[in-house]
């Protein structure tokens, strides 16, 4: 997972692997630390290791995906201190949502949906969009094949 800098430039969001197993499917946690290295704290741990995470445009929340092979892939939203954790998407067909990102105004979340639990077979990925609260899931037309890293454009 790449790191992400908060919109105000004061915080860094990153994934910290659990030693000795660096596999994001089995351990590790999503962490936040001030840009000067102070005040590090976990946002997600244990049951919710994050494979990909992004700050909301206002910097108050973080969206992240869990892509665990032992359970359904899920998209979660939490405050930067880890409070208010809520699940906003689980694919009823058992697919794995990956690489979520916020819309510029924070009202929607765009992500790729992998229909399999195999990280290396993405031939049928497609982009999906949901409301920031998880409402109104819709496929994004014209995205088939290897669709992995969605981004919003202003």
Index terms:
four-stranded antiparallel β-sheet, globular, 154 residues, Neuraminidase, mainly beta
Detailed description of the structure:
There is one protein chain. This protein has 154 residues and is mostly beta strands. It has one domain (4-139): Neuraminidase (6 Propeller), CATH 2.120.10.30. It is built from no helices and twelve strands. The chain has strands spanning 4-5, 11-16, 29-34, 41-44, 52-55, 61-66, 74-79, 86-90, 96-102, 108-114, 126-131, 138-139. It has a four-stranded antiparallel beta sheet, with no helix packed on it. Strands 5-6-7-8 form a four-stranded antiparallel beta sheet, with no helix packed on it. A four-stranded antiparallel beta sheet has the order 9-10-11-12, with no helix packed on it. Strand 7 (74-79) and strand 8 (86-90) form a beta hairpin. The model has no long low-confidence stretch (mean pLDDT 80).
The CATH superfamily appears as: TolB, C-terminal domain
Overall shape: globular
What is the end-to-end distance? 24 Å
- In terms of structural class, how would the helical and strand content be classed? mainly beta
Uncertain segments of ≥5 residues (pLDDT<50)?
none
CATH topology: Neuraminidase
> What portion of the residues fall into strands of 2 or more residues?
35-45%
- As for the number of domains, it is 1
Q: According to CATH, what is the class?
A: Mainly Beta
Corresponding CATH architecture: 6 Propeller
What is the number of strand segments? 12
Total count of helical runs of at least 4 residues: 0
> What is the typical, i.e. mean, pLDDT?
80
Strand order of the largest sheet: 1-2-3-4
Radius of gyration: 15 Å
Described by strand count, sense and barrel closure, the largest sheet is: 4 strands, antiparallel
The helix fraction, in percent, is under 10%
> How do the helices and strands follow one another from N- to C-terminus?
EEEEEEEEEEEE
């Amino acid at each position: 997972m790449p790191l992400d800098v908060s919109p105000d430039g004061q915080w860094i969001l990153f994934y910290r692997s659990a030693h000795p197993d660096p596999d994001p499917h089995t351990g590790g946690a999503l962490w936040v630390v001030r840009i000067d290295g102070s005040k590090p704290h976990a946002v997600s741990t244990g049951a919710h290791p994050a494979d990909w995470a992004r700050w909301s445009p206002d910097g108050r929340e973080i969206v992240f995906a869990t892509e665990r092979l032992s359970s359904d892939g899920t998209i979660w939203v939490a405050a930067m201190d880890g409070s208010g954790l809520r699940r906003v998407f689980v694919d009823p067909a058992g697919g794995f949502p990956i690489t979520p990102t916020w819309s510029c105004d924070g009202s929607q979340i765009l992500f790729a949906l992998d229909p399999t639990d195999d990280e290396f077979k993405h031939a049928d990925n497609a982009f999906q969009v949901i409301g920031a609260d998880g409402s109104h899931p819709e496929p994004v037309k014209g995205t088939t094949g290897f669709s992995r890293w969605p981004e919003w454009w202003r």
